[in-house]
Request: fold
Amino acid sequence: MAEWPMPTRIAGIDRTMVSGDDILNGDSMEFCAHSNLELSLDRWQECHWHLHQMEANYHEPEPFRYSLNSFIRAVKEVPLKLQNDLQRHPEVRARIKPLLDTVLTNELFKILGKQRDFIVHHGGLNLKSRGQIGTTEGRKIKLSFPFAVHPWETSDEAYERYKEMCRTDKFLRGLGPDCDSAPALWRTWMMPQFPDRDLLDVAFEAWTLLGELLSGAVEAFGGKRFDLSMRCRHEPELVRIKRYSQQEFFMAVDGIDLGAEERKWRERKAQ
Reply:
């Protein structure tokens, strides 16, 4: 499993108790705005947590699917929790109604809502996994080509299958790493309802959509607009790629110890 830094709290959200100094500085209004939306903000921040779990488990099918399922369930609950939060605030509810309608009629949100219902009543989602295999030189991609990465297998399992094929297929081995490059595998998670879209991108779009809604609600209570730039998000290309050892590949596929070969070369050069 990839070791990602733990996600930070979302910028601008503070549900902790305020001090007397905070009140004097005018921060009590910010606290009041957030405390009025406690249920919906908590569920939205839960979505944020699940997003980072999806990133961290991107190359592990079961943990990724569990994280996605949890995200989808939490996403659908945010507008419901918001309506609960606003039961005693009809003026705010009326003010943000256009934002709420935008969310509820958004095609992406409606599709995710249907997937949530399917998860609850029928079980797992029908996820698709698209893969590529290739080589890199430093941070640059040297070569990549399509390679099946099945939705039920980890990226490591797909890579082991690729190495086994390279042992018997000289052409495929010729496309693999050389002394200047290292092997790498790319995968992308998708579902039929979002063809050709990375599910991480879909999830982040949904999170931002809800953030716009909750930000509008906070502003209606006199608070400050949220920072929705999601600076804690990891670069998507770095999430989708998994790099492997050049030395291990040569030993496992070709039976060549690159370290030993380098030592021999240096010894000959020193003579």
